[in-house]
């Protein structure tokens, strides 16, 4: 059988170290030391010792991305050089997995190209083709002709081994075209060598022989002994198929002599297999047996499955000759198994013939007939594939010829018709023109004169108006830019001290956690500080509304919760001013609605805040009632009131009643404008009535329907409650989560419930473990590296996994949750993890443990929180670096990771800010970096503020 190594790729492997050094910049001192350490390891003769030392060095380099990449590249090359193919695949696969550069980077291209070479040498041709296709896509982005030529050439070789001659020729033609334009004499010689293999497979021996002899002449001129050996091996295989035994043995022995000199065990496996087949054909069974044993020896030396396949085929023949039919059966069945796994249909066909003979001798007539029938079917299939390819080619030529003939006839008919029409039109126009020429001439001259004057006047007016509009647009754009910059800066300046206030309150809460008298006011400070921080961020909402980029987030909640929250906020303020604060709730209880909780609360806070601010004595009243298909909120006060002139501008931006009010009471004049905008977006409206010196009444009507089920509502801002006791469960749960701290936390929570926990760091590992361990339930994160949660879910369904799979993600928008359920997920669990919902979800699918009682769900995660806090400084540096590079795709991935982890460990501010940036980066090509700058500054401050807060926490 014809055995063809990767000629172009092997050159890059053997001399890759030199090429890498030439193309890379001069190594720094630390890199020079690393190179010396790697050279010291590669000088060891024992491969196990090499692996042990390499593992130690690799562990020490994992935190240094650049050095680790260099280490993986060199060890992969060394493995390939020593023909340790499995180890080479591991090194290059790891290099491909950790390379996060752009798709067109050198490292990404090198990793997939070398993976293709390694799997080709292993005989895994389908995998090799897949890796080469990825490398080809990267090479197209890099626009380097010789790289493209190399990959085209390697794909041709892989498809040749996979018996797809049509694609083999297709890729060889592409490679040949590029080599002719950009290649060297070495490239052209290699191309002749590879093309000869395709001609041998098509039984066109004369052309193949001519190419091989020409390539040997070129290789000799280039002093390329390896190229000569490859050509001699191909000549030997061709002579064998032609029955020229002496020439075949001479050519094969010439190749073997070179391979033994350089110690290429892989090549010796194939050439000794060919020599054994040749000896069998000549009846030299003893010599053939020795050659087959040598082929097996070299295949075992490098653990090469394709080598076993080739060596076991002649060995089975020889064992039949020696009468060892049991051994022969074992040999041919092993060879067939490898051939089917690697897709080698030619070897499978030959093996079936031998298998039928052996089974017939052993008395297994039915099996022998089945094997023979399979041999015939496969033989017909291989012949039909070639015939079909030729027929398709001829059919295409025939159809193209007929189509060209029909097109030509149609063109002639169209030309005749066009000529006839043209003659008739010419005659008609000649008569018409003779009649109206004089009239048209006079009218035309008059109209041209009038049109010229009108066009001049119109052009002047358009130019003037265009200049005015352009000037106005420039002024508006400049004003909008100044406004956006001001809002971003002021938000940044306010959030920084406010974060310190919140951090100190959290530290005091921790320090005085046993003093109930201090805990309550500190909790109020912390809670309202958090809300104030949200409101400071909402100062930017006006700009987003004007730009039509503002989105509401609807959730289900009880209005009683909202009223309690607002009451708690304003009760103490009114008491301090000597005002009566009255809340009248005329709604039935519970009254559950679906609205944007934060924005509705923001509107009520603005209205109540104004009422308290402008009221010196009397009361402030909030009345809530039903009205038509909605809810009416009425805010009444006994304050200073407003006249008709003031009411006309009350909802304008940066407007108050008059300057005296601003000096007396302060404020920016943004609250009512923003409240009106938010009410309108929720489908409602705000109206106001007022009498000077008597008071004002603001009322807002929001359309909404009362929900029937309270249990289905998602209640926000729940009061503190005792830790729930849950019964222990039994079963196995697989957690797929890419963030290390999150994964450790979820594992700890589930372990306390009594279940057995399996963890996976990405979707690919999750699929492997799920199909291996078959857990009772899976918690699947959606966004993960290598393979995301959705793709992993689809693969598990295709593989027949029917266990419940829950979507575990920070994406809590209703349309996203709906899409997960429609896809087939059993349910959805959001981040941070709601432990009540977690136990409820688990108890639906897992049985209760037979003993053990109830389990306290309180989990000590202080060490995980500390680990997460320590990682935030590095995350901050990463965010800054990606922002400066404007690498929006990678920045969005980092923000998604921060969102999930921060919400899990209670860092809500960081989670909200990171979530906002992640949403804004959904379309990288449309990113407005200027408009997003204030969120970037806020995120950097919040990440840094965690460290400052930790320093304040002296306890």
Name a few traits of the molecule.
5-stranded mixed β-sheet; extended; 36 helices; disordered C terminus; 5-stranded parallel β-sheet; 16 strands; alpha/beta
Could you characterize what this model shows?
This protein is of the alpha/beta class and 955 residues long. It is 70% helix and 8% strand. The chain is built from 36 helices and 16 strands. The strands form five sheets. It has a five-stranded mixed β-sheet, covered by helices on one side. A five-stranded parallel β-sheet has the order 11-10-12-13-14, with helices on both faces. It has a two-stranded antiparallel ribbon with strand order 1-3.
Task: Summarize the SSE layout with pairings.
Elements: H1 7-14, H2 16-23, H3 29-42, H4 47-61, H5 65-81, H6 85-98, H7 106-122, H8 125-142, H9 145-161, H10 165-182, H11 185-201, H12 205-221, H13 225-242, H14 245-262, H15 265-281, H16 285-301, H17 305-322, H18 325-342, H19 345-361, H20 365-511, H21 516-538, H22 541-546, E1 555-558, H23 559-577, E2 580-585, E3 592-595, H24 597-613, E4 619-627, E5 630-637, H25 644-648, H26 659-665, H27 671-681, E6 685-691, E7 695-703, E8 725-727, E9 729-730, E10 732-736, H28 740-752, E11 756-760, H29 763-773, E12 777-781, H30 789-798, E13 805-809, H31 814-823, E14 827-830, H32 835-845, E15 847-848, E16 854-856, H33 862-885, H34 888-904, H35 908-920, H36 929-952
Parallel strand pairs: 2-4, 10-11, 10-12, 12-13, 13-14
Antiparallel strand pairs: 1-3, 4-5, 5-7, 6-7, 8-16, 9-15
